[in-house]
UniProtKB/TrEMBL annotation:
This is Transposase. It comes from the Bacteria. Residues 69-92 are annotated as: Disordered. InterPro entries: Homeodomain-like_sf.
Length: 127
């Protein structure tokens, strides 16, 4: 029997990571905090969340940083570095690496030259 999927493609379903709006996070934290002690778990199960979500969101709320409630890793509003700036940074790191390599190579050549001169002096003295 032949497969209908082309070779090299991944037939497995890849779920999309959930994202939460700041308003949703604040609503869930308020609901969780207002729930009686024996019903807090029900709130988490209903929303398919972990206590760590609520803990992190509460800390951000208490710090007065509503903008910190936006997940920077998955937020569509994430600012991108300008292409030229990113390229400049990449080239700067490359130049630094090459300069270090050049200094190391110069030091190695200097040591080799001194060793060669020393060997020549030794061989002349043996003659």
């Amino acid at each position: 029997m032949t497969s209908t999927t082309p070779a090299g493609s991944d037939p497995a379903f890849r779920p999309k990571r959930r994202t939460f709006s700041p308003e949703y996070k604040l609503r869930i934290v308020a609901e969780y905090d207002a729930a009686p002690k024996n019903e807090k778990g029900a709130v988490l199960r209903r929303e398919r969340l972990y206590h760590s979500h609520v803990k992190e969101w509460r800390a951000a709320r208490d710090a007065g940083a509503l903008e910190k409630l936006v997940d920077r890793r998955t937020s569509p509003a994430r600012p991108k570095k300008p292409a030229a700036g990113a390229e400049n940074e990449k080239l700067r790191r490359h130049v630094e690496r090459l300069e270090k390599e050049l200094a190391r190579n110069k030091a190695a050549l200097e040591v080799m030259g001194e060793a060669s001169a020393l060997l020549e002096m030794i061989s002349e003295g043996a003659d």
